[in-house]
DNA sequence: CTCCTCTATATCGGTTTATGATATATCCAA
DNA sequence: TTGGATATATCATAAACCGATATAGAGGAG
């Protein structure tokens, strides 16, 4: 349990996630995907209000991959596509980011700054 | 109402907010404050996990001020402090950002990606 | 067959955002 | 009187973001 704590503390240093990184992890949380698909799904996830272009996408993928938060599936093989998936740590990171965001929203409600969604 | 819509559409282009801008607006939503106080309160709001230094703070304040999302209170007078407050538009912007975040969290729950806080 | 669009990955050049360090000055308490 | 907290500000640099462009395969329209 203190080991779990330690890992979470390490993750905490990566929060708040950069927007692009957050969305890439979010998209991959639905299942493994290739880059172009991630790009499309981010547009959909955000309701069309947000999108990443190839420059942001592939540099973000590179970084997340180097950090060990996502990994390329080994079975890619013949295809020109490169399939990515969340690692265990990547899942935890995304979860920590979600919790961080929710805590802030809850705080905003307690402070009466945000007045929507107060139904217990 | 279509006028309200239009204004919201303008605000939408500013989302997602940069992290520092989000926290400055959040801090000011509690009431008018001077820069240094905003800095302290951001640390507190984030539970100590996030903080902005003077460089980020004052450049962010400058930008938000130029954009008309915050304003300097005219009555500052003698003091060396410069007091800032949210403008009407600034309030709306923060609210739009909160709603954007909450919608994503709700979506994550519907997709069973996020499994906390599901109590209706 | 050729052209166009979509898929798919990648990088270049430049802007925006973030940050540690430093500077300046006031205030107060040890 | 010195040292820490308050308070604002900028410099130089790094991280994040993004439009444009490049390359290439795949599929359909004319």
TrEMBL record, chains A, B:
Pfam families: PadR. It comes from the Bacteria. Signal peptide: none annotated. Residues 24-95 form the Transcription regulator PadR N-terminal domain. This is PadR family transcriptional regulator. It comes from Acidicapsa dinghuensis. The lineage of its organism: Bacteria, Pseudomonadati, Acidobacteriota, Terriglobia, Terriglobales.
